[in-house]
Structures are given as structure tokens and as C-alpha cells.
Amino acid sequence: MQERTAAGAAMWVAGGMALIAFSDNFIPLVADRMGLWQFQVMRAGMVLPAVLLAVLAFGRLRLIMPVSAWRIAVRSLLSIVALMMYFAAVPSVSISIAAAGLFTSPLWVAFFTAALLGERVGPRRIMGAALGFVGVCIVLGVGTQPIRPMAMVALAGGAFYALSVIWTRRQCAGESALCMSFWQFVGFILLGGCGLAGLPVLEAAFGGVEGADFALRPWIAPDATAFALALLIGASGIAATTCIAVGYRSAESSFIGIFDFSFLVWAPLISWLLWGEVLSLRVAFGMGLIVFAGIMAMWSGLRRPAPA
């Protein structure tokens, strides 16, 4: 029975990751029709009212009320910056490379917990970090081709995502998943509006960066396709988050967390099915090393006994 529950939980998480991979494959089409900041405002703005109405209809308003508003605000900011960096990179470097950068987060978690929190780093985590570093270098083509700036942005997104994971574990344990998701969508609208207002500053700072066009585009009157894409990606995100939450509540996180990495399988597979894009052997090998290193870092961190 326990094995069946674990298998079901794995399917929920892998299914959620497949939904995200499917919707994120449409981001290059989004980039043809609007900018990053507009996309986030539209995506969150179309989904958030539906979530709020559902909460009100079921009389569960308390589920979106934070225990600590400032802790939720910090968590939302870190998560949003991470995902903004990932979204910004996708049209320029492909979803596979952008995802590889984002999914270095377990390696960053190991680094930050050691460097900032003073936790002991065991040999397995050190080995995992070394393998992950090699994997990143292979994916980026270090020594064989120029490193694209937006690939580094995706890598930085992995670092911010790691900070959000650490903050969530230590400061938001009492918050519900719905509460964190709701205020994250609110944050996307606020930060998207700030990004649109600050475009002149961003243009002056990053106007010459290769591949930064998506992040520097002003508001464009959206057509029906733009609305449909924003709704598709936003609704898929809500459905995927629900699937992943169900999975994590049904099995041990040390086991189920491995299936987060199924995104790195789904993303290139769906990209091939939809657009005919084929992943190079070099990038596939590097992504494999990142996955293996991430699992090593996660397991060694979770299995280490807590101090008395």
C-alpha cells in the first residue's frame, strides 16, 4: 500500500512538471507578442481573480491570509526574481538550457547553507557540487563556444530559487501552500508593473546585452493570441502547482523531490514534439550530470541527522 502511495505521489509530481514543461515551451511565442513584464502582469492578472473567487466561494479566505506578511513578502520576492530570470532566458537560450540553469538550485542550497548558515558540508555534497559544476560548464559550452549572457541569467535564477527554498523551509513553515502561491501571483503583478515603469533604467543598463530583448520590451497592445498564451501558461501553472502539492503531501520529500528533475526530461521532449528541436548530446550529458549532482546534494542534506 505504501509503495502504491509513493508511486501515485511520483506520478502527481511528474505530471505537474510535464504541465509546466508543456506551457513553458510556448514562452518563445509569448516573446514574439509581448515583453517579459507585460507577460507576468497578464498571466497573473488573468489567473489571480479566478483563484480569489474560488477561495471566496468555498468560504476559505483564511487560507490565503499569511501568518507573517513580511516573511511571505521576502519569500515571494526571491521566488519571483528566480522565475523572472528563468523566463527571461528561455527565448534566447532554449528551454532546456534555461531549465538546466534553474535546476542547479539544490547545488546552490548546499553552498548557501554552508556559506551563510554554517552547516557542515559532507563529502557527498562536495562531490555533488563538483559534478554539478562540471555539468553546468558542459551545458554552457565553456571552452568550446562563447558563453551566452542569458544562460548565466538562468544560472543566477537557480541561485535565487535556492534562497527562496531555504527561506521557505526556515521562515514559512506555518504558511499554507495556497497562501504562498496566491501572494506570489500578487507579487508577479506588482513586480511586473515596476518592471514596466522602470524600463528606461533597465534599457540604459542592459540595452547592449545579447538576448535581453524580451526583458526590455515595453507594453504592446495584446491580441487574442497573446491573451490565449497568457491564460494557457497561467492556468497550467495553477494546475501544475496543485498536482505537485498533492504529490508532496502523499510521500516523503526526500523521495518525491527527485521527480522535480523530471522537468529536465519533459522540457526537451515536448520541445521536440512541438517544434522539432533536438537536444545536443553535449547539453543532454551536462543536464544528466546536473540531475545526478542535484539528487546527491538533496539526499545528503535531507538524510543528515539534525543537531541535538
TrEMBL record:
It is a multi-pass membrane protein. InterPro entries: EamA_dom, EmrE-like. Keywords: Membrane, Transmembrane, Transmembrane helix. One of its GO terms (cellular component) is membrane. Residues 10-140 form the EamA domain. Its main location: membrane. The chain crosses the membrane at residues 12-31, 37-58, 70-89, 95-117, 126-144, 150-168, 180-206, 226-248, 255-275, 281-302. Coiled coil: none annotated. It is found in: Membrane. Belongs to the drug/metabolite transporter (DMT) superfamily. 10 TMS drug/metabolite exporter (DME) (TC 2.A.7.3) family. This is DMT family transporter. It comes from Thermohalobaculum xanthum.
